[in-house]
Design a protein that fits this description.
Helices cover 57% and strands 7% of the residues. It is mostly helical. A hairpin with a 7-residue loop joins strand 2 and strand 3. The N and C termini lie far apart (46 Å). The C terminus is likely disordered.
């Protein structure tokens, strides 16, 4: 039997993506570990931090992180025990609740972000000139819209006027 597609550029593309992800994850895990966070803890905190009022409906948080509803519940439970997140009831829908960063959660992000951003710059975005980075980000967004269309669920501020929510400013995220 002869395998004829071993040099297919699609294999190269997915292989390079896997290698880059594995390398980045390994290098960045040390910063998360030093802060007492797992990779998913950090992802949850950063997604909340970049969301309007530093809060997301639990269902949107699950969609953004790719976790099941029970998986995101376990992560939020752990972050809540650590005082980094609280759950808040939705003022307009009794069935929904929000995960909201606490001041301690924001402080944790302030602790981790400087080194994380330095690592991102050194290992990922820094080697790219501005025009390449702009094209690369556009390409990643295009692919993400196919493979994870819910990755930005709840990123827009859709809280009805007068509804109670966590304090914080609306920040754009993409």
């Amino acid at each position: 039997m002869t395998v004829t597609n071993m040099n297919d550029p699609r294999l190269t593309a997915i292989g390079l993506l896997s290698e880059v992800y594995a390398g980045l994850t390994a290098r960045m895990q040390a910063v998360f570990n030093a802060a007492g966070l797992s990779e998913i803890d950090f992802e949850t905190l950063i997604r909340l931090g970049r969301s309007p009022r530093h809060a997301l409906r639990m269902t949107d948080l699950a969609a953004q992180t790719g976790l099941s509803t029970s998986g995101v519940t376990r992560v939020v439970d752990r972050l809540e025990r650590d005082g980094l997140v609280i759950r808040e009831a939705c003022a307009t829908d009794r069935r929904a609740s929000y995960a909201t960063l606490t001041p301690a959660g924001l402080a944790k992000l302030d602790e981790v972000l400087p080194q994380h951003l330095a690592d991102v710059d050194e290992l990922f975005t820094g080697p790219l000139p501005e025009e390449e980075l702009t094209a690369f980000l556009a390409t990643l967004r295009k692919i993400r819209s196919v493979v994870r269309p819910c990755a930005t669920a709840g990123a827009e501020d859709t809280t009805p006027a007068g509804a109670t929510g966590a304090a914080g400013e609306v920040t754009a995220r993409s």
